[in-house]
Amino acid sequence: MPGITGIIRGQSYPNGRRDLHLMTEVMRHQKFYRGGQYIDEERGIYIGWEAHPNSLGACMPVVSLDGRFVIVIVGEHFPQFQTVRTPKGIRLTEETERELFALYEKSEDEFLRSLNGWFCGIVADRRTARITLFNDRYGMGRVYWHESADEFLFGSEAKSLLRVRPQLRRVETGALAEYLSFNCVMGNRSLFKDVSLLPGGSAWTFDSRRTHGRRKYFDFSEWEQQPTLSTGKFLLNFNETMSSILPAYSEPTEEVGLSLTAGLDTRLILAAADERRQILPSYTFGGLWGETFDVRTARKLAQACGDSHEVIRIDEPFLRDFAEYAQKSVYISDGTHDAHGAHDVYFNRIARDIAPIRLTGKFGSEVVRTRKLVPWIDFPRNIVRADLARLIDEALIVRRSCERPHPLTRVVTDEIAWYEYGRVAVEQSAVILRTPYLDNNLVKLMYQADAGIRDSRDLQSNFVIGKSQRLAKIPTNLGRIGKDRALLSRLTYLPLWALFKVEYTYLYATPHWLTRIDRGLENLRLERLITGRQKFEGYRIWFKTHFSDYIRDLLLSQRAECTNFFNKECVKRMVTSHLAGTHNYFSELNKLLTIELIYVTLLSRMDYHNKTDEQVRSNCDARIAGLTGTESPSNLTVH
What we know:
Helices cover about 45% and strands about 15% of the residues.
């Protein structure tokens, strides 16, 4: 995934350039990435970055006129900085660069607070060798870090650190217990021992002696203390805010595709674009078993606006190459997205062929409405090692100690950044991912909403009704439609909700007794009758059919590393009975498969992507020979 990485040591060391190359190389998941380096060899500062072409990161670095300050920002800022196109790509305008440095010289914190989006970066003062490492206030511009007596290492991907420091390739057992319990690791920790996360809204500074100050340039208590607005005033401000921020997220039009669903989160975006007469190509993800409600509804929405629409489906090539996509899901996300996320790799590679920027309604339900993300999973203790079972029992206590008192702060600073980051990382490895629902202006406003407004679920539907009556008349996936049909909406909701629950149970949470009945009726292909209307991910079924050989070979191998934490006989029994169709162990097998792939791709061998250490080092030597490095007056290289 595009991001930054680097080493700060305070003095030169022989392998600095080679280590930096290896750290950036493992982040280069696509050949089309653009990257660069900032190196101050004498002071032991080695910084590299990778970015999508034509993105803000591709404009980096930005150097002040006097050459003193160097800024690198990878991610996005809204509204976007003014850029100009050159034969070599895009760059910031000279006026924009002057404004950036004027603001930075006035106040570093004010400069960072002015940025609006998901990002991470550094500011280097070349006169004093002072480095500031920062990220966005939500922590979505993730930065892993490790500190020892000799150095400070950081990277947008944990594998950058693991690649050059083998001693870090160890799983933290307490973090693993949290993953099994909540599907994520909390408290700004990672799955890897002695590797932590930079908290959101951080600005950490380092001087020439490698001493540093750790501060936050933004605290959400500032927004929590705002006065609550009256209902009328809030509704007016909400409509004005959404209308003002949305245009920036859909520019440039020729590079943006809308990931469209049947729900309100994306319909609001579509309604605003339709009002501006903006045409957005759209697409919807689908499956093997007919057309989902999302697909059918999205097609109607696009047709109503005169937009093009495509369906990106799970198909036979995906099922055939599942092993590759599962490994990519785990590897790209540093183990924060699981094997079950294989289709996210597949979908977003195809989505890029439609448009390099993917505009979504992600996190609308969490920010605009009231919805918690992190689940509590009662993972069976009898299949895990005794010490891990004890940590699983303690995990709920750890979670409660991490929770923020304000529900919106908990969602935007913790739950989204910890629970949803893995999927976002996988998606952003292929496309530039955008959502207006974490725009600073909108989130700030939502702190001023009365609790009843967020609970009512009417904010987005009222916005759509005000912008486009024809879009408001098309039901959502749960039957929510315009006010003129409110009674029908309520009557429609219950059967659709029940259908959703039936599909979810059949595809994921089928009890063992029902699994055996399903096995006896397998010739009827019940999945084609029961599913495919709301859900399309058939992993419970695919695990015992298309993927059975892969799962058996990986989890029952004598070399399987997951048995370091799990009872080997229990693992064998779960694999055998699930593949036989007599039991449903999808959730447990997905966890086991993910942990095994963490070892395969991140811990046991760091030559993933079919490169041996010798090949990587040979390539590294060749590329280093072609860089200007410290021989250049600027100490900057860009590729």
